[in-house]
Amino acid sequence: MEEEPYGVVLSTNPCKEVLVERHRGYDIIWCEGIEDEKSFYYAIPEGTYGIGKAVAIGDTVVDVRWAIDEIFGKQEKNE
Question: Which residue from 29, 35, 42, 62 has the fewest beta carbons nearer than 10 Å?
Answer without folding.
Answer: 35
